[in-house]
Amino acid sequence: MSPQDLAQIDPYGIPLDAIDVSNPSLYQQDLHWDYFKRLRQEEPVHYCADSPYGPYWSVTKYSDIMMVDSDYHRFSADKAVLLDTARLVGEKEDSPSLAAFIAMDPPEHDRQRKAVSPAVAPANLVRLASVIRERTSRVLDELPIGEEFDWVEQVSSELTILMLATLMDFPVQEKELLSYWSRMIAGTPGDGLMESLEQRDHVLRQCAARFLAMRAERAATPPANDLVSLLAHSPHARDMSVEDYCANIFLLIIGGNDTTRNSMSGGVLAFHDNPREWAKFRTNPALVDSLVPETIRFQTPVIYLARRARQDAEIRGKMIRKGDRIAMWYISGNRDEEAIENADRFIIDRARPRQHISFGFGIHRCLGNRLAELQLRILWEEIARRNWSRIEVTGQPVRAYSNAVRSIDHLPVRIHA
Asked: How many whole angstroms separate alpha carbon 158 and alpha carbon 121?
């Protein structure tokens, strides 16, 4: 179906059983909102019998998503966090796996998560804050005031890739490799970068080989606080298989880049579309405390994650059978008016800005959530210090062809001094 044809469809004019919110084109064209609004209103637990990924259930309400996300006894993450299982574990037996600890249940989930958690512990964040601020200040000072440029390329991507290189102690001069690997891991065939899953497998094997060599190097040197060294020395990860190690590296690359990058870009776009909120922030930069979580809610960089039912379970009168797959649509839960007042509005002085589920819920809550918030906070603090009158979006954002990551690939802007 062409983009023009998809845009002509009325989400309220088709049968409920014809709705398939797993279609990546909906997110590329920003057409998904009314589909989810209808599902929340008419069928918040919805069964799609026919999709490119097979049949699946959708949970679209805030409270239901929280319940499924936190109940690993009934709803398993084990190799089930994506609807596209071919991307998760590979179509071929020797394909690189993306089934890291995010795609595991306790106790293995807990063991592997503990191996990398020191990298984002509070003490390490304090150490990283000065590095983040120095880099952010330098990047902003180098921007061409009054001229059009791509905010994603020159700000969002630059800052998050530099941070990821620091976290992994990866050579900064090769940081573009991290960006390329991240896009391939999170991408979808036909998105303009990934041509096929076979191409992705080839690239991820190259990535895996590089990080396996790095693990061997770090294991032979004293322990450090970077993620690779932690995985090489941690008692929780010493016996980790090659496959599990590589899967966790892939997860950390995505988690350290895509989510924060897209919140950085999404905040600029939200301010452009809501000039009264920008005026509030210019008048009172202390609103950064609520601006950051509100931006993360409003953007919702991770569109969904999935689970598989361990047993028969009933949700809102719908019987989920053992083995059925369930998609938790965070992007819908964050716009649920029953849970969040004026959920469709970007309001930087919300009374309860942290009432969002962009980081997930329960034992799988995003490990790097505090680091993401720190990077966003410093970015907006440094923008406020420069007292720009406006960051004007000068053209349409280019969004990724993906149903997993709500990615803004290009955002043309002009800064008004």
From this structure: 23
